[in-house]
Design goal:
Layout: H1 15-33, H2 43-54, H3 60-66, H4 71-83, E1 87-91, E2 99-103, H5 105-128, H6 131-152
Antiparallel strand pairs: 1-2
Helix pairs in contact: 2-4, 3-4
Length: about 160
């Protein structure tokens, strides 16, 4: 493993500038995670697949709410997911007028594979970091996650 070039690093700024710099770095990490292509799906289709993975068995209206979209747009999106074999539309147990949306086995396998490829991409980069860098990143991400989990649970 070669030495890490730290010549471009700058001391951590304070206050709002530090938050802005960290936000930019965080965004760069997210963008890097997208380097693994979601093909054959578009980004909006991938969002729907992930939502269906988290909330199995929703109806079209519920999925549209989760995606912050409209039922007609989500219906067309579901048509495309069904065409590639990633979505099953089943009769609803609640109403004969509704359909239940579920990821198919093929859709679940696709999502597992995509997540594994993204994980491998991240692990390859983490392996190049120094032990101190990995430890600092882990500590910061644990704190970030605890705060994010607290906010999603309605805590101040």
């Amino acid at each position: 493993m070669g030495a890490v070039d730290r010549s471009r690093e700058q001391p951590a700024p304070d206050g709002a500038a530090a938050e802005s710099t960290l936000a930019e770095l965080f965004e760069a990490v997210f963008e890097r995670g997208r380097d693994v292509s979601p093909r054959p799906l578009s980004v909006s289709q991938l969002r729907a697949v992930v939502a269906l993975d988290r909330h199995d068995g929703v109806n079209l209206r519920e999925l549209a709410e989760q995606l912050d979209s409209t039922p007609p747009l989500v219906s067309r999106l579901c048509d495309r997911l069904e065409a590639v074999g990633f979505l099953d539309r089943l009769p609803s147990a609640r109403s004969r007028r509704e359909l239940t949306l579920r990821l198919s086995d093929r859709g679940r396998a696709y999502l597992r594979d995509l997540r594994e490829r993204r994980r491998e991409n991240v692990e390859a980069l983490l392996a190049k970091m120094t032990p101190a860098g990995r430890a600092a990143l882990a500590a910061g991400l644990r704190e970030y996650r605890a705060l994010a989990d607290g906010e999603s649970a309605g805590m101040p």
